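Example 9 (inverse folding). The structure is encoded as follows.
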């Protein structure tokens, strides 16, 4: 009995859905006639505006019926063409609402779809998703065909009217994920649209507009080398780091992650690497890594008690992207060694190695420690790395100690995590073995007369002597002692 009721319910719902679809199809046909009518008079203009608002609501409720209605999508695109202003002119005030409704209507016809597949998905759901994707592809093709290969939409980015810019950016993203090549070609044919996107990103006071602009740039810079180069010379790297100054990198928020993913998109480009070297890009990158590790002083001091607990994956998401960007510079897969060496030198001069001083912080998470060791590993072959490891700094952070002393203290410390000791030990031993000047400095620090300015950190050589003497006195007992002694001997040998 229950099964019979369920069958009747399903049948009834199917009839209702069919009736609703037929009604939507009829409504769409009537609306096509209304928006295609004469708009030369004030009453005609208002009628079209009301029809577009109804069309937008219908597109959200029944997009399939709208797409299936002959000429519906093309009619909306003709409205966009008619009310779009000539190049270098602004959109007329009376057309702003109509343009917004038309663009939102087109966006509603292209579902974002679902990229995740699941074995437990109902077959009807999968069939609907496939139909939605085919529908979105069809709409995207129609838009490209009837907007001069999206050149009309790109011109809308040049307007100062915010809502039009915003809706155009959303629509362009939905087109791009389906048909990237026409969008790329249109942008390269007239790069001014990129300039206007950069202007919005740099100056927009409205967060949701700036964020949508960032999402579009994230797509555009993903693979096209020419677009990567254009946005770089237009100040994209500087803009990324400028916006990051207002973001809490410890939270791993979407805006910060999108900015850093955009940075990752372009740092693999050799032209962009050269630009970054010749500007303050390396210094900005190092500064951002430091903030991602330790936070800004004001944040740590004033808001530490108020900040909610952040999951580890989110806490270090920004640091992971920043370190990956630095690694792309230090060890680019396709770059000549001379260019890679120039990148490493820029990072070392910017203070990238000094980030390893954070390894002495016992509160720093293991994941963050190992990221910093990876950064050290990518830079240790640089000749200037040896100079930086042995120099007596005068900055507040280094307190006048050579970096080598701090790293040796972490490596041979009694409470250092085994994973950190193993990772740091391999890199530091390789670095000392590679650079003769560093070997000489380490040997000179064996002398009892050489003392560090800070009593907490002994000279690296004296620390080696202490460890080996303790190992001899204890007879080599204890696994931790053996591990520490092995690395101490490796540094000496």
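The amino acid assigned to each position is listed next.
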């Amino acid at each position: 009995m229950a099964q019979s009721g369920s069958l009747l319910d399903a049948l009834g719902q199917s009839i209702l859905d069919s009736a609703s679809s037929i009604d939507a199809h009829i409504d769409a046909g009537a609306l096509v006639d209304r928006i295609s009518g004469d708009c030369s008079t004030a009453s005609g203009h208002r009628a079209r505006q009301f029809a577009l608002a109804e069309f937008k609501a219908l597109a959200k409720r029944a997009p399939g019926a709208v797409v299936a209605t002959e000429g519906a999508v093309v009619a909306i695109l003709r409205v966009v063409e008619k009310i779009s202003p000539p190049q270098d002119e602004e959109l007329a005030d009376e057309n702003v609402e109509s343009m917004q409704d038309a663009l939102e209507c087109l966006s509603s016809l292209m579902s974002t779809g679902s990229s995740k597949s699941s074995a437990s998905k109902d077959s009807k759901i999968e069939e609907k998703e496939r139909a939605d994707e085919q529908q979105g592809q069809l709409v995207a093709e129609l838009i490209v065909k009837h907007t001069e290969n999206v050149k009309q939409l790109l011109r809308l980015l040049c307007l100062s009217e915010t809502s039009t810019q915003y809706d155009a950016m959303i629509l362009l993203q939905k087109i791009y994920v389906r048909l990237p090549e026409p969008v790329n070609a249109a942008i390269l044919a007239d790069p001014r649209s990129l300039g206007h996107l950069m202007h919005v990103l740099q100056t927009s006071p409205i967060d949701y507009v700036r964020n949508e602009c960032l999402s579009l740039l994230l797509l555009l810079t993903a693979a096209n080398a020419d677009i990567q180069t254009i946005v770089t010379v237009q100040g994209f790297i500087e803009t990324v780091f400028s916006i990051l100054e207002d973001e809490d990198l410890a939270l791993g928020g979407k805006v910060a992650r999108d900015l850093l993913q955009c940075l990752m998109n372009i740092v693999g480009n050799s032209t962009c690497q050269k630009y970054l070297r010749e500007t303050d890009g390396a210094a900005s990158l190092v500064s951002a890594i430091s903030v991602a590790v330790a936070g800004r002083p004001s944040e740590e001091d004033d808001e530490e008690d108020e900040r909610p607990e952040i999951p580890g994956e989110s806490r270090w998401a920004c640091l992971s992207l920043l370190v990956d960007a630095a690694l792309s510079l230090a060890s680019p897969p396709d770059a000549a060694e001379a260019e890679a060496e120039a990148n490493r030198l820029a990072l070392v001069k910017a203070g990238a190695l000094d980030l390893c001083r954070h390894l002495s912080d016992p509160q720093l998470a293991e994941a963050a420690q190992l990221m910093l060791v990876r950064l050290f590993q990518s830079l240790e072959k640089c000749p200037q790395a040896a100079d930086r490891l042995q120099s007596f700094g005068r900055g507040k952070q280094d307190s006048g100690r050579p970096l080598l002393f701090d790293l040796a203290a972490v490596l041979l410390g009694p409470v250092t995590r085994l994973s950190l000791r193993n990772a740091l030990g391999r890199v530091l031993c390789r670095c000392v073995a590679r650079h003769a000047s560093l070997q000489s400095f380490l040997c000179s620090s064996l002398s009892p007369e050489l003392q560090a300015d800070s009593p907490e950190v002994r000279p690296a050589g004296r620390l080696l002597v202490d460890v080996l003497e303790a190992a001899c006195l204890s007879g080599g007992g204890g696994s931790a002692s053996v591990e520490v002694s092995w690395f101490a001997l490796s540094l000496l040998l």
